[in-house]
Specification:
This protein is α+β, with helices and mostly antiparallel strands. The chain is built from five helices and eight strands; from the N terminus they run E-H-H-E-E-H-E-E-H-E-H-E-E. It has a single domain, classed as Alpha-Beta Plaits (2-Layer Sandwich), CATH 3.30.70.
């Protein structure tokens, strides 16, 4: 188990899925989820330096910065988030699911990462900052990428267009703290990386 100091976490929830799944056979629900998550998995493979953590029901969780440090972890996660929204819209249109979309939340902070237990081991991440990323998803909007202030301040300048989001009480802050400003990423303005392999710097703290 290691502490990673600079990590960007993404939560993506499929909006409209619960209502739709109640009208479908179990086989159709599984097939739909598999198609969507395979689509997201393919994007993660494209963006070198990202790590899929897990899926929880209709929620997809990924991050950058674990298990290896990635210098532009924030920019990479925001870039894939925009592509996830686009791919989800295309999927919904192609399959005549107009009510489906995704709500994406992103936060940057620290995590503990590793394996727990001795049977059926899975790699996972834990921290208040993970909870904050989930809060960004919950307080976001369907079809949009919602980022926290801590993500905004580390985002590469001039790559994305932003607009103000709602002020949000962050669960990783002490009780009684004021709500923090958040932002929606509206579009990517410039390319920022090649998706070829990049060198990593392993930066882990015990």
């Amino acid at each position: 188990m290691y502490r990673h100091e600079e990590v960007t976490i993404l939560f993506a929830d499929i909006a409209g899925f619960t209502a739709m799944s109640s009208k479908l056979r179990a086989e159709e629900v599984v097939e739909m989820l598999n198609s969507i998550f395979f689509m997201f998995d393919t994007l993660v493979e494209k963006y070198v330096g990202l790590e899929k953590i897990k899926t929880l029901g209709d929620c997809y969780i990924l991050c950058a910065g674990v298990p290896q440090f990635v210098p532009d972890h924030v920019t990479r996660v925001v870039a894939i988030a925009l592509e996830m929204v686009k791919k989800m819209d295309e999927f919904a249109l192609a399959n005549n699911y107009p009510q489906l979309g995704i709500r994406v939340g992103i936060h940057t902070g620290q995590v503990m990462a590793g394996l727990i237990g001795t049977d059926k081991l899975t790699f996972d991440i834990w921290s208040n900052d993970v909870t904050a990323a989930m809060s960004m998803e919950h307080t976001g909007e369907v079809g949009r990428v919602h980022i926290s202030q801590s993500t905004r301040v580390q985002l590469d300048e001039g790559v994305f267009e932003l607009e103000d989001g709602p002020d949000v009480h962050m669960p990783n802050n002490p009780p009684g703290s004021k709500p923090e400003p958040t932002f929606f990423v509206t579009r990517q303005l410039n390319e920022f990386i090649s998706f070829a392999s990049i060198p990593y710097v392993v930066r882990m703290c015990f």
